[in-house]
Design goal:
The chain is α+β, with helices and mostly antiparallel strands. It has two domains: about 260 residues, no CATH class; about 120 residues, 2-Layer Sandwich (Conserved hypothetical protein from pyrococcus furiosus pfu- 392566-001, domain 2). Helix content is about 30%, strand content about 25%. It is globular, with a radius of gyration of 23 Å. The two termini are about 25 Å apart. The relative contact order is 0.17.
Length: about 425
């Protein structure tokens, strides 16, 4: 059963929130962060991308950069740009994209739940990325950014959240970089807090949607602190890490598409002929035709769009991994025809999140940078949960969640 708790969030005063809030650290490069921060000294990028405070080219892994993160974090508190709540709360965080709103609960998740598999993952993590985030958590003694969780739909929590959604939020702003709306409510009522805690206690599992490295780092630092404390009791703040948990059915997963540099020695006509062994092919001309169901793909090649429909019987839909379109495309197109065997290491392939649109796929191919683009039907949250429940791991570059969580709305201190 899932263990969560409320916490004393460290938050910007309402008048500062739009200056403090930022995109997550891992969705932009250092120079993008430098440009977005500009001359705004209240931008959270000074804490989560502190290399921007050094000369261009300074490594984000430079030891001085981590020290700068801690210095900036203290400065934000000293200046009153981040102020800790006096009491423990849960928070409701709403995001609106293209007219659709999803509501998440900002909670503290239990480190032991991560370690024992109650919090389920579906991606592999890399130790170097874990260690980077661990250094950041250690030096700040805080979770600066939340992890993105999903939980099974729950009518009690939905009703509670919708009651708050009818009231005036603490924060309400439109993020300038993407035009998405963000709202936050503070839950201070003791009965509501108890209800949330109890409803999560009934859940057998929580699911990491996005932020596997942040989850691993937060949990590992918590476990590390427990070992280092001779008087460890188990209820210390470091036993918990910050997450925003959304009902699974509310989440939007976009397509995560592929662009490939060459056709492995084939001409476009030869490539299409080879594809015909496993797919029915329909030429759509210049019309962009998005896949409408599983096992349907869109191919952009030599200035034309094609719809590919997998032949019956070639995908094992009883296999939670083998039945995924990311697996089908990897096995029957990228590996079989293009000799791209490892999506993580090949320099012949790149990936484009669905938010960028088919225009970006066309641009990459028409420019001559890439030879072809392959668009996929999005993975469903149920597929992710099934894979996580089975203890298996998603293939690389399978999911793209939007909208991303904004950072800086709430911070969790570990003491």
């Amino acid at each position: 059963m899932a263990t969560i708790k409320p916490f004393k969030g460290l938050r910007p005063p309402k008048e500062f929130v739009e200056q403090v809030e930022s995109r997550p650290y891992d969705v932009l490069e250092s120079e993008e962060a430098r440009a977005e921060a500009g001359d705004n000294e209240k931008s959270l990028y000074h804490i989560i991308k502190p290399e921007i405070n050094f000369p261009v080219g300074t490594s984000e892994y430079d030891p001085r950069v981590y020290e700068e993160a801690a210095r900036q974090f203290q400065k934000f508190q000293d200046k009153g740009w981040l102020v800790q709540d006096k009491d423990e709360h849960y928070y409701i965080y709403a995001q609106t994209m293209n007219g659709k709103t999803q509501y998440g609960l900002v909670i503290c998740a239990y480190v032991d739940d991560y370690m024992n598999g109650v919090i389920k993952k579906h991606e592999l993590t890399r130790r170097d990325k874990e260690e980077d985030r661990m250094k950041h958590v250690r030096v700040n003694n805080a979770n600066m950014e939340p992890v993105f969780f999903a939980y099974p739909d729950n009518a009690v929590l939905d009703k509670l959240i919708m009651r708050y959604a009818q009231t005036e939020p603490e924060y309400d702003f439109i993020a300038p970089i993407d035009g998405f709306g963000h709202k936050l409510w503070v839950i201070s009522d003791a009965n509501d807090i108890a209800t949330i805690t109890e409803e999560f206690r009934k859940m057998p599992s929580l699911y990491i949607a996005d932020g596997h490295h942040r989850s691993a780092a937060a949990a590992l630092v918590g476990a590390e602190k427990a070992k280092q404390n001779p008087n460890h009791r188990g209820d210390e703040e470091y036993n918990y890490f910050m997450a925003v948990a959304f009902q699974a059915s509310q989440l939007t997963i976009l397509d995560y598409n592929r662009v490939v540099k060459d056709l492995n020695g084939r001409t476009p006509q030869e490539f299409l002929a080879a594809l015909a062994e496993d797919f029915d092919i329909e030429c759509c001309g210049k019309e962009r035709r998005h896949p409408q169901k599983k096992h349907q793909f869109a191919l952009y090649l030599d200035g034309y769009w094609y719809r590919l429909q997998l032949h019956d019987g070639l995908a094992d839909d009883s296999d939670p991994i083998g039945g995924l379109d990311v697996s089908v495309s990897s096995n029957l197109i990228l590996d079989k025809l293009l000799d791209i065997k490892d999506l993580r290491s090949s320099n012949r392939i790149d990936f484009v999140g669905g938010l960028r649109g088919y225009e970006e796929l066309e641009r990459r191919v028409d420019s001559g940078e890439m030879a072809m683009a392959l668009a996929l039907y999005p993975v469903s949250m149920q597929e992710i949960m099934n894979i996580a429940d089975s203890g298996k791991i998603m293939p690389p570059k399978a999911t793209w969640f939007e909208p991303k969580l904004r950072s800086g709305l709430v911070v969790h201190k570990l003491d």
